[in-house]
Amino acid sequence: MVDATGRTTVAADYFQGYSVVGSIAVIGVLFVAVAFGAGRLLRPVVPTPEKLLTYECGVDPVGEGWAHTQVRYYVYAFLYVIFAVDSIFLFPWATIFAAPGFGGVTLVEMFVFLGFLTVGLLYAWKKGVLEWT
């Protein structure tokens, strides 16, 4: 934009982009607020003792709500997630490895990456995490 003195003002163009993003964010928040408000106004509210009971799979709650879960199940799940996510990195690596000029560098990088995974797996094995007892 050019002001009265003939200079261009970059700030106006710069903040105009932010005003568009801000207005879209405000419209989005208003849309969500109106949807939640309409749902609150239109839903029937009839609390009964049966509706206020804890519900899980159609079974009436019996006993106390505290259950002991062993940590090893979480450790196995965590190890699975780590190796599943790491295996995802093999696909882009294979694509880059096939490109000309990237073979040696990417091969070394992948062996370093697999070395870190191996060290982590050996550490878990040494700590006895992988023993199912």
Helices and strands, with pairings:
Blueprint: H1 10-42, H2 71-88, H3 90-98, H4 103-126
Task: Kindly describe this structure.
- The protein is mostly helical and 133 residues long.
- Helix content is 63%, strand content 0%.
- The chain contains four helices and no strands.
- The protein has helices spanning 10-42, 71-88, 90-98, 103-126.
- α3 (90-98) packs antiparallel against α4.
- The radius of gyration is 29 Å and the shape is flat.
Give a concise summary.
This protein is 63% helix and 0% strand. The chain has helices at residues 10-42, 71-88, 90-98, 103-126. Helix 3 packs antiparallel against helix 4.
Largest sheet: none
What fraction strand? under 5%
Task: Tell me the structural class.
Answer: mainly alpha
Work out the radius of gyration: 29 Å
Shape annotation: flat
Helix tally equals 4
What is the terminal-to-terminal distance? 73 Å
Q: What is the chain-wise order of helices and strands?
A: HHHH
- Unreliable residue runs: none
Q: Count the beta strands.
A: 0
Taking all residues together, what is the mean pLDDT? 79
Helix percentage range: 55-70%
